[in-house]
Amino acid sequence: MYRTIRLRKRLLLWLSIAVLLLLAAVLLPESGALLPLSGTGAFLPGLSVPVSLSADGGPASDPIPPEKVVYLTFDDGPSKNTAAVLDVLAEKGVSATFFVIGAESERGIGLYHRILDEGHVIGLHTYTHRYDEIYANADAYMADIQKLSDHLQKTVGIRPSIFRFPGGSNNSTASPEVLDGIKVRAEKQGLCWFDWNALGKDDRSWVSDPWDIYQNIVETAGSKKRIVVLMHDDGLRTTAAEAVSMVIDHYRQLGYRFDVLTPETDPVRFP
Ligand SMILES: [Zn+2]
After folding, report:
1. CA of 63 to the centre of ligand 1 (A)
2. CA 20 → CA 9, 13, 15, 17, 239, distances in Å?
3. Are 85 and 60 in contact (CB under 8 A)?
4. What is the CA(137)–ligand 1 centre distance, in A?
5. 69-259 — its CATH code?
6. Contact 228, 197 (CB under 8 A)
7. pLDDT bracket for residue 64 (50, 70, 90)
8. Distance between Cα 130 and ligand 1 center (Å)
9. Which residue has the higher pLDDT, 15 or 221?
10. What's the CA-to-centroid distance between 252 and ligand 1, angstroms?
């Protein structure tokens, strides 16, 4: 009998200690701020910000963070630098999106093939890339990307349904009316356009330092979870391969994955 009472007393003691510890943990978190209870409808008087509890009453685990993804995109190719960029992408096991222009040479068409054969995506970026012609009016623009689409169909057997406006969808070369006209027609034809939210600022009239390209991308991307990186792939971009290598290592280390743009990708567009 005495033994039973002692056991009960002990049990009560342990239970009390457990309750006190639990209360201390709830009321005195590390920050020193009072943490409220809720989620199960339990609020402490005077505390209004709720914190959710899991089914077993413990703190709910952190919500799954939004997926971190980088879309590497290269405009204006193919060029004499495309092969080096493709080599780096292959070495790193990363797929990218190439918004190409019209290439007639054997080398250029060979690069269209290589881009596709190595699992990358080709999008339209106009055949001529001549702002004065393509942005004269919406008809001119649509005729130009139709020409590029026909050219790609003929040379590599694809008809891309994604495109990028030279200068972006809000460029100041084209009037707002022309840009709106292009967008309306593109949508009617099932064509989807992408802008960008990070850029290498590598479209200068000189060769950019790869470190600058890398830093510009990281700075303009900031802490975004979905990053569409704009880089360029024309004859002057001799440092693109080196820069993209650094960009891939950087974002891989931060837990991002890499993907290609498709018509199903939620587009990043300028307002
Ligand atoms: Zn361009």
Report:
1. 39
2. 16, 11, 9, 5, 63
3. no
4. 18
5. 3.20.20.370
6. yes
7. low
8. 9
9. 221
10. 27
Give distance in angstroms: CA of 125 to centre of ligand 1: 7
What predicted TM-score, i.e. pTM, was given to this entire model? 0.77
- Distance from Cα 129 to the centre of ligand 1, integer Å: 7
Are 95 and 131 in contact, with CB atoms under 8 Å apart?
no
**Phi and psi angles of residue 132, each rounded to the nearest 5 degrees, phi first:** -65, -30
pLDDT score of 33 more than 50: no
Rounded distance from Cα 85 to ligand 1 centre (Å): 17
Distance from the CA of 190 to the center of ligand 1, in angstroms? 21
Tokens of 70: 């980088």
Q: Which of 30-34, 93-97, 136-140 has the lowest mean pLDDT?
A: 30-34
* Ligand 1 centroid from CA 180, angstroms: 19
- If we measure between CA atoms, which residue out of 58, 7, 8, 51 comes closest to residue 33? 51
Residue 169: DSSP 8-state: T
Q: What are the helix (H) ranges across the chain? A: 2-27, 82-92, 106-117, 131-134, 138-156, 176-188, 210-221, 240-253
Q: What spacing in Å lies between the alpha carbon of 254 and ligand 1's midpoint?
A: 29
Q: What is the Å distance from ligand 1's center to 234 Cα? A: 9
Domain residue spans of the chain? 1-56, 69-259
- Quote the tokens at residue 140: 């001119």
